[in-house]
Design brief:
50% of the residues lie in helices and 23% in strands. It is of the alpha/beta class and 139 residues long.
């Protein structure tokens, strides 16, 4: 059960993928956004290439739990990707995942430049790993 995790931003999309057992999420890289149609096509193709059976997108809720403009943009792109890939789509509250990802990299001794290159992919890992943990405890 390979699952694709996405941390969707305005400039980049962090990508993570689970192992075949759906237990461990690992970073797959960062997609630099170009245009919505290109982003949808490339990310849906990636999901197919990796053999994903589902997509999990981080949903950037406001601190009070409401959805703002960024959450609406994230939903629109995630829905388009899932539709193109013909895969089920799940969301996970991603509040503070980028902060958590950056903190982990600082503790790991990475420079600011190295952190910037990896932050989006690590945020996608945190989103996907949290979703996998939740799903595995519900089984």
């Amino acid at each position: 059960m390979r699952v694709l995790g996405l941390d969707i931003g305005d400039r980049r999309v962090g990508v993570a993928v689970s192992d075949e057992t759906g237990t461990i999420a690992t970073p797959h890289g960062v997609h630099t956004r170009r245009s919505a149609p290109e982003d949808v096509a490339q990310l849906a193709q990636l999901a197919r290439q990796l053999g994903a059976v589902a997509i999990v997108a981080g949903l950037p809720l406001n601190m009070d739990g409401t959805e703002g403009q960024q959450a609406r943009k994230t939903r629109a792109l995630a829905k388009a990707i899932a539709s193109e890939a013909q895969l089920p789509l799940h969301y996970l509250d991603e509040r503070l995942t980028s902060v958590e990802a950056d903190r982990a990299m600082v503790e790991g001794g990475l420079t600011r430049r190295a952190r910037k290159k990896r932050e989006d992919a690590l945020a996608a890992v945190l989103i996907l790993q949290a979703w996998l943990a939740r799903e595995n405890t519900q089984m």
